[in-house]
Design brief:
Order of helices and strands: EHEEHEHEHEEHEHEHHHHHH
Number of helices: 12
Bound molecules: nicotinamide-adenine-dinucleotide
Strand content: 5-15%
Helix content: 40-55%
Oligomer: single chain
Low-confidence stretches: none
Structural class: alpha/beta
């Protein structure tokens, strides 16, 4: 398949490389001067998109996605698919899908989970929104770049699933970290805390699979000095998107709001920037009640 790939950063570069390695003809574009194995580089986004059956975007945010969409949609051929894998706000995802559909294109919003490791290994999970026909066109590429793709519904449904999932993730990470910090102060051994909670009703992915306490549970960023993993600032981005969506849908999300405020404090006013999002545990450890 002839594929255009725009946004070859930490995630986009390995995804594009995997498509090229699988035998697809990939033409890429990035604002930065990058090169990716097996990918031919174009001089503009429109040039990368021109003549492609599928154009994939992997960009930082909704504003940039809208700007890139303005450039590439007029260059794309009728019936081609625009597949946005970035994490963006639901409103931008729907606006770009509308614009693409009106231009005679298929559109899919397909944010991912799995991080840089998943992108390199081709084991991402895709959460997709769009028509059946659009999803069907993108599905063989999701199979190469990932191990699972869920068609969540119409345009914007993929972004909705992603931010709801990550709102739960942010809230449960904070709950797990503050419970460990409380357990410390109550004199409870961390391993015992893990043994009980991981097999009791407090279990969660953050406790069982990504334990924020070093030396406890399976290997996680906590065992590596809280090097990300999933950086606190990326969690903050997703929590902000969840609260933006909650505002526009008039949804009451007090825990999501509190999690956003805490990650904002951690990233912007403390030492959270560049640390894994589980570094909330040492943050709580150092604090008392006031
Ligand atoms: P990144 O900053 O490494 O890559 C983004 C790339 O887009 C950069 O190379 C940048 O030069 C390029 N770019 C920016 N504006 C452009 C434009 N106008 N035209 C062409 N290229 C442009 O970011 P990333 O980590 O690859 O993340 C990409 C997306 O994936 C984000 O939406 C992020 O939230 C999401 N995501 C990231 C992770 C992760 O672990 N990094 C996990 C899941 C989802």
């Amino acid at each position: 398949m002839k594929i255009g790939f725009i946004g070859l950063g930490n995630m986009g570069a390995p995804m594009a490389a995997n498509l090229a390695a699988a035998g697809h003809a990939v033409t890429g574009f990035d604002m930065a001067d990058v090169s990716v194995e097996g990918v031919a580089m174009a001089g503009t986004a429109a040039e990368a998109a021109s003549g492609a059956e599928v154009v994939i975007t992997m960009l930082p945010n909704g504003q940039i996605l809208r700007a890139v969409a303005d450039q590439i949609i007029p260059a794309m051929s009728n019936g081609a698919a625009l597949v946005d894998c970035s994490t963006v706000d639901v409103d931008s995802a729907r606006a770009v899908a509308d614009q693409a559909t009106q231009a005679g294109l298929l559109a899919v919003d397909a944010p991912v989970s799995g991080g840089i490791g998943g992108a390199a290994a081709g084991t991402l999970t895709f959460m997709a929104g769009g028509s059946e026909a659009a999803f069907a066109k993108a599905a063989p590429l999701f199979e190469i770049m990932g191990q699972k793709a869920v068609h969540c519904g119409e345009a914007g449904a993929g972004q909705a699933a992603k931010i709801c999932n990550n709102m739960i993730l942010g809230v449960t990470m904070i709950a797990t970290c503050e419970a460990f910090a409380l357990a410390d102060k109550l004199g409870l051994d961390r391993q015992k805390m893990f043994d009980v909670v991981s097999t009791s009703s407090g279990y969660s992915w953050t406790m069982n699979a990504y334990c924020p306490a070093p030396g406890v549970g399976p290997q996680s960023p906590a065992d590596n000095g809280y090097q990300p993993g999933f950086a606190a600032e990326l969690m903050l981005k997703d929590l902000r998107l969840s609260q933006q969506a909650a505002d526009s849908a008039d949804a009451d999300t007090p825990m999501g709001q509190a999690a956003m405020a805490l990650y904002e404090q951690f990233v912007e006013h403390e030492n959270g920037l560049g640390q894994d999002f589980s570094a909330m545990l040492p943050r709580f450890e150092q604090r008392g009640r006031t």
